[in-house]
What does this fold into?
Amino acid sequence: MKRGAIQSMFAWILMIIIGSVFILFFVAFISNQRAASDARIGSSLINHVDTVLTTTKVAPNAFADIEIPKAKFEFVCEEDLSLYQLYGKGINKETPFDVIFSPDILEGRHLLAFTRDWHVPFKVMNFLYVTNDAVAYYFFDDLDNAGMIEDMYGYVHDNVTKEIINVGQQPVNNNYDKIRIIYYQEYAGEEYPLIMFPEGEIRELKDRQVTAVVIRQVQEMTDAHLYGQVLFYEKEGNTWQEKGSSSYFTTPMLLGAIFSENKEMYECNVRKAFKALQMQAWMQYDRIARIQSQYDDEGNFCGALLDPCLFMDDEDYGAENDFDVPDCIGNSYHDFADEGPTTDTVAGLYEHYRFVIAMNTDLLRGNCAVIY
Amino acid sequence: MKNRQALSSSKKAQIKFGETIAIVVVFIVLVFFGLIFFGSTQKEGIQEQLREKVQLDAVSVVKEVSNMPELHCSIAQVEELNCIDITKFASFKRLFESDIYGNQANMSYIHYFGDSKIYYTQVYPAGEPGEVDDEGNPVEHVLWDNHIDENTESSDEMQVPVVLHNPVTDRRAFGILFVKVYSRSIE
It folds into this structure.
């Protein structure tokens, strides 16, 4: 072969190698930019949702209709992991301390969020409820529920898809992704009647699309608005299958059970609320013990009206102080919050709730510093 | 003669090859400058986004602090807007220093306050004992100060006028709540 031909061939090979390197470089660059752009869009969507949820959650009784490009959001609440994320994209926002009651997956162009504040009776925090227009909430009114079903229906924000189902009516399926049915059972001793699965088109839906929550009065004379039991059910064929029970304290927490996907997600959020309550109990104890000490030093009768032991006992307080530490006996808000949502703890919380209301009323009458 | 021709054709080929290399080098240099320009544009965009985020975070922290039940004044069971109960403020501050709940509280509230400084000063009545330092400046009552390191940018200080209420003496004063958010700068 001639030298010129070899050189020409060599030049061509060199050009091909360099060209390939450039093409590979630009392909990698473009695909990198594309991945970055996807991440940026996902991240700005999560940031947008986060900004609206943050703004919503700080105000009591607030509502937000968040318009989003069609997306699938997943809400997770487990013992060591709490977040919401764009499903399958790996872009998330951690929510280790926010109480967000929601279904596990929400898909669509809207997210609906509203808040209710949780008082015990002093305010602890706002609960956030997130859903969308593809989830329907049906409240079964069997006329024997002391107004509980109507009250809970009214407590859900009006922009949420909800309906009261009277005796003889059946829930309809307007192509909803999920249907949650809410029942109420008043106290019935040991044996509660079986919850019958509704007739009609709801039976044609897939099992995972239909769930129920039963609100149960735990004792004859108790007000189910204040505390009680909730049972979680899932559709299995044309019957209800019980998937566990839990307890609630006051209607915002009960509403949490109605909006939670299942018992596990509900209790995970309740534990977060109880952790916040424990810190509030610490602050209430610290504040009230100091105010009491100040009143006592001044010989002011208001000191005798205050009881810091309702909130926490002296051993759990464990901080340096310049006041006389009260000798506390018995359970406190702190202890109840430690035990989680059981029938006993919510009944105990209710007792303290009444004591604090009475104490606050006395403080108001005496023109003293109030608790809430 | 043949040798001379071969030599001249080899030189021509070398020149051509040199030209090719030169074109490739110039092309690489152009691509390199292009990437530097692209990178700097991207960096400016990111810095702008970061500045916006810091401002948004500051607004978000202000909203959080202004609406916290941990600080709210309660008058006859009604929450008063833009009012700080100074006894609650003091207990809230002590919570972060407590042995049992200090860690949990810091871990919880960093989620809301992040890298920021939150404090109030009393502006009226001015010059009260305990409210001014030795140089006559208003004392900063700091609730939270999480300054990640020296090389950080901060947002403009956001200021919210508040009522400061002492429920024991039922005394009211006027103050300003300050919120400053820090963020790492991009070099």
